[in-house]
């Protein structure tokens, strides 16, 4: 008798898929809380009162969804990770209150759609970048424009969307896939497909 | 396939090869264990003892993906892990112990009884509502054991259950195990590094060698008596054997060297005291890399891509600062790495080497700086005889060279080498007051969303002002009802956000009308600020109960999320520990934005590696209590969702305030 100990269906989450996704989300929540203390004040000062440029930070909040999906690669992974990360943000204190949960759903939706289209088989930078860009559009067009920036003139609105997409591609997609590749190289992701792939390439 | 008796174990030609490893970790193992047998499983580090226990418990795929050949048959296994922190899923003793019962769908009414009996069986006299983290190491391990016993296992699988505990706590855990198997006749398979104290309890010993092969199987007295040399060569801590010879290393000769040992019960605060002394150390304040530090989680000291880079990073900085030739400093680091037996690994990734090697690497790192004082946290834990003597050799050589060493440890052999021994007494920690008025999860989430819907109608100044007034009134009523903000500062980021929205909607709008900005600011404030204030009260376990039982969200994701949120404080502690280690090593001290961003990425990476590894262990601990079993469909919950007076008040007030703009515009 021989069997391969790994996942059978993309819909059947193993215990380790759930726990890793959840812990990843909490750890990224802590990292962002550290980001607030370390780096974000600099960005806030630079973009205060000028949200179109602030859109360049959008990708940071989409990164957990991308990283979670690249690791777990199952339907719902992005939403699960992003919702928990948002909850951590809530607990530690943030600037937007409970509405971050709405943002979380939108920021994860783009990632879910892109990975579902490719049947969860493909990963890597191109996928991550597409996913990041689509999520950025959802977040800005689907929520922020109507909740926060109702009175912007059309040209500013467009600029905000474009800045966010750039950030979705490079910050969420680029840094997200770099991060996951780095983690895979340490062996921490050996229980996941992405860990196996990184071994095979070497 | 023949069905085996409950309490029996049957392993047939088991070979396990993780995908990441070129060689099998377990090779062609075959053995049977009869119901009620008591077995000790031993072997050197990396021999696959823990892996075999996980295979027996049926949770192998939680550690790594790989190829499993052969078969394991077992009925009714319960697994206890080394570190009880990994098993935590909740916030009270009751919920922890009841976890396995919930997963098999037991009726809520029976749970309190069974949990109480379980706690009695492990001699833990704490109230059911006691916080699960407010326990000493030994108490926590006994709570975890009660959680394993609650599911009534016929085979107890114990993975180094006492290795992190002081002698007295360890004895208490062993005593509990002995009582349990005496009373129930359960089968026992125990893995332990320092196994001497388990010998009176077991009747059979299995020995794995470094290649994952079963080399001996039989009565302890025969096996240990007849194969002393071979077992000693494997590095095993055989009873009655002298302390291993310590090799003489040369780190130079100087005066003023000493070894101070901090010892005391597990959980008494040895690590805290060690770090307090390190912070107060003048060498830490006056010179770069003035102190060296080996933390308990050695993996946290990893920096850079190779073993050498990790070991040398701070030494290189210090050499530059002190004007020492770079080549000289490098050869010094190489020498220390060689003496600690990791010379051949210098070009490897520090993450790829074994845990024992990482510990020696971290020790080399601490010594390579040439620091005047060095602080070591449990440097010898879990080491075989060979690596133990390398570590102790380096410690003694450092003393000879004039280094002041402070070591937190409960290793008696190491303590016997100290110049000074300080006993740390447990501090009494004030219990946190969990009884303050509390708003529960759903109310915290629902209220701001109602306010958000209401805010859509805030389109004129009058509706904005009316709504703000109503909100202020609601806040006063909540205050009167006992609601308190933990800290007023929590509202600050929200106020800044509101201001930013107001200003930008003013000068980026088409008419650039200040009134537009004011209305936008009031609108956003009406749901953002209450949301932030309420969020400070969020308790994951309460939210989880409500989401799963009222909203019928799928149980497993909710439980995983709660368990992860429970680890928030641990992860914050790891983050702080990483920053502390980096600061000690002179890394990331520059103030520029790029340097800060760099340091932040290093911290994030270190945190994530640690977090993901611990998640794997947690998954093992949870799956061993039935988290992924098919019966999860009929899962029950040990407590009903909390919902109180304050929750009703919050929801009604939110509805009322949300309605205001509809009548005032």
Structural write-up:
The complex is a heterodimer of chains A (202) and B (665). The longest helix of chain A has 32 residues, at 154-185. Chain A is 74% helix and 2% strand. Chain A is an all-alpha fold and 202 residues long. Chain A has one domain (15-201). Chain A is built from 9 helices and 1 strand. Mean pLDDT of chain A is 84; it is low at 1-7. Chain B is of the alpha/beta class and 665 residues long. Chain B folds into 3 domains: 9-233, 3-Layer(aba) Sandwich (Rossmann fold); 258-423, Rossmann fold (3-Layer(aba) Sandwich), CATH 3.40.50.300; 441-540 and 648-664, no CATH class. In chain B, 48% of the residues lie in helices and 12% in strands. Chain B has 23 helices and 14 strands. Chain B has helices at residues 49-57, 93-103, 108-121, 137-150, 167-184, 220-226, 228-233, 270-280, 282-286, 307-322, 326-339, 355-368, 385-400, 412-415, 441-455, 461-480, 492-507, 514-535, 540-549, 555-566, 568-584, 593-623, 645-664, and strands spanning 9-18, 26-33, 38-42, 66-74, 77-80, 155-159, 187-191, 204-208, 214-218, 258-263, 291-294, 373-377, 404-408, 420-423. A 6-stranded mixed sheet of chain B has the order 5-6-7-3-8-9, with helices on both faces. In chain B, helix 13 links the parallel strand 12 (373-377) and strand 13 (404-408). The longest helix of chain B is centred in the C-terminal third of the chain and has 31 residues, at 593-623. The interface between A and B is large, with 77 and 91 residues. Strand 1 (2-5) of chain A pairs antiparallel with strand 4 of chain B.
